[in-house]
Design a protein that fits this description.
Helix content is about 55%, strand content about 10%. It is globular, with a radius of gyration of 23 Å.
């Protein structure tokens, strides 16, 4: 095993009691910080508010750091919280929590070695010419190492953190209690649904056999489709806690932002086209919008698709309603769109007239790209910012929106992720051409 870099690994706490103690310590730390800040404000003649004392950069840093150290369910919930509340929390707090979307501590070599021995046996190094101790990626439930086998295969070895699978349910319960008690979550935010969705997603993502099968399935889906490449699963080096795949040399998708317009347009068009194909033709979708799951090969122009732990297969009812909603967007039909949202479960059937008016205005805004036709310029559009502001108005007006069903929520995240990626690439996409096949 090659030498690690200077970055220090942090052991993952295992066991229900140990992890509960970490979260309990976080609560105590927050309470102490609130008391200290409150005393300072009282001494200066100001009456402190509990919410203002809790929502400080130092407290957000404590939350982000502890969740990053714990990984697993605790970190996943923090990632989702940072995504869902990005436009509700103060910018400083959103920036700090956003660290959880891209950063995670990694296992120190000693802990990593224990996991590898438990899965491959004490002589596991005999299988490799090289195994890099320092991971090339670390996330909420596992980390990825590059290696080369004795028979010359370049592989990416995804190693699950110890105890993560067994800690999911208790982590979510404990984290939910802490977030509710601390009042760190904005009023009106559907925390129970967020935590339940994160719990379900984590149970699926920790099932590496399920992910391997999804990867094979998507490889079959895209067989013969130009412009994409997926890694092959190596079953002889995969276990319940390790998923080994072919290593594909590539670069982060964000680096495309510096390339020419035609390349950016082509890549964004492929990503959006694939999303539509997943929804309407395959009814099988990789629903994780993390940019890290898309990479690019400059020499071949292909997109590398990674991480199939969060795949969902949709029923014909949802895909049919989505197709009808898309038609309503193209035609600018407010009433038809609201009926589709009722059928999907986003809006109640008894939605008041005043709420229909609010939803109609939101629909008019959101359907702009479809109604205008032709090429949509993601790089110059302010649509997403306007929709976010309108969403906050809907919340203030207490419009009768519901927490979407789980499938609809994951679909919503995928659509938003693809939009954000096209926006990041400043791409121009012919939406008419993409939608024609599915209308």
């Amino acid at each position: 095993m090659s030498a690690p870099s200077e970055k220090r690994g942090v052991s993952i706490p295992t066991g229900r009691i140990n992890r509960m103690a970490r979260l309990g310590g976080l609560t105590t730390s927050l309470a102490g910080n609130v008391a200290a800040q409150g005393s300072l404000q009282l001494l200066s003649g100001r009456r402190p508010r509990l919410k203002d004392l809790l929502l400080t950069p130092s407290n957000a840093a404590r939350v982000a750091d502890q969740l990053a150290r714990m990984r697993g369910a605790a970190m996943k919930a923090g990632q989702l919280l940072s995504m869902e509340t990005n436009d509700i929390l103060p910018p400083e707090l959103a920036d700090i929590l956003a660290r959880l979307r891209a950063e995670a501590h990694f296992m120190p070599p000693a802990q990593l070695k224990k996991v590898l021995i438990a899965n491959w046996g004490k002589d596991f190094l005999g299988r490799f010419k090289r195994f890099d101790v320092h991971p090339i990626a670390a996330a909420s439930i596992g980390q990825v190492h590059r290696a080369q086998t004795r028979d010359g295969r370049d592989v990416a070895v995804k190693v699950q953190y110890p105890g993560i699978r067994q800690s999911i349910d208790s982590d979510m319960r404990n984290l939910g209690m802490i977030l509710r008690a601390s009042n760190m979550v904005p009023d009106g935010f559907d925390l129970p649904r967020l935590l339940e969705d994160a719990r379900v997603q984590l149970h699926e993502e920790t099932d590496y056999a399920r992910e391997a099968e999804a990867l094979r399935r998507f490889s079959r889906h895209l067989e013969g489709t130009e412009g994409f490449i997926l890694p092959q699963v190596h079953d002889d080096l995969s276990t319940d806690d390790i998923l080994t795949m072919a290593f594909i040399d590539s670069q982060p998708i964000e680096t495309l932002a510096q390339m020419d317009q035609a390349t950016r347009d082509s890549v964004a068009t492929r990503i959006l086209s694939l999303m539509l194909r997943e929804l309407f033709a395959l009814r099988d979708m990789q629903t994780d919008p993390n940019f890290a799951n898309y990479r690019y090969q400059p020499d071949t122009g292909r997109l590398v698709l990674l991480d199939f732990g969060a795949t969902r297969q949709f029923d014909t009812h949802l895909t049919g309603e989505c197709r009808a909603l898309l038609r309503a967007c193209v035609q600018g039909d407010r009433d038809a769109a609201i009926e589709r949202l009722i059928s999907i479960g986003v809006v109640g059937a008894d939605v008041p007239d005043k709420d229909r008016a609010h939803l109609g205005m939101l629909f008019d805004m959101g359907s702009e790209p479809f109604r205008q036709g032709g090429v949509f310029d993601f790089g110059t559009s302010d649509l997403l910012a306007r929709l976010r502001r309108a969403g906050l108005v809907l919340a203030d007006e207490q419009v009768a929106l519901r927490a979407p069903p789980t499938d609809a929520l994951f679909l919503q995240r995928k659509v938003l992720g693809c939009y954000l990626l096209a926006e990041r690439l400043r791409a121009r996409v012919d939406l008419d051409a993409l939608l024609a096949e599915y209308l």
